[in-house]
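Figure 2 data, in text form.
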Amino acid sequence: QTLAYIAKLPLDRDEPEIATDYTRRALAVREAMLNNLFSFAVERQRIAFQQTLKLYDMPASLGDAELIAQVVLRTKGLVLDSTVEDLVAARASEDESMKQLLGDLRSISRRLMQLELNSTEGADDLARIQERESLQRREAGLQAMFCRQVAGAAQRRGALEVTVEDVQARIPAKSALVEFIRYERDTGRLESETRYGALILGPSGDAIWVRLGLAEDLELQVAKY
């Protein structure tokens, strides 16, 4: 967070090159933090931590399409990607205790789904509530154990190695990927305004960043529509 705040100072002084340098360094630190945390945290913790980082704000305030593309492409769906990586590694393991652990997690997940379905049908009595809470506690414990055994052995997350070129190679000809971003634009003196922008990425060439305007104005138009 310190590097991100420092980056705001040269931006206030109209020194975008210096602000961009600090922003790049801040993003590198945040990617390392995400990678390290994902080596032991369970899924809910990964989601909560990623939401605290506000990854888009400075790149979007700078209007740096390259930086925005890097952040969006590496962190969109990062929690899901990391969870899938862990499951693939676990299923490939020859460790019988790991297979048992996966089986237990699947059984708990199925039972929780059954309880959720019954709850939506109005059959949520005290016994079901207690069973659900007990299963959720057991699930959290097993997930923590799973992360220590599998995710703890993982190296750099694959999603954090993605490049713009990797994604462009999968965009069909005469097509474009458009990502809409809601971010806090720095307006100086540590103040900001919520805005929207669009990142446009074709099968080749540079990424394009389009500022769309204030969030409150756009959201009002969307609500009216």
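Caption note: The two ends are 38 Å apart (CA to CA).
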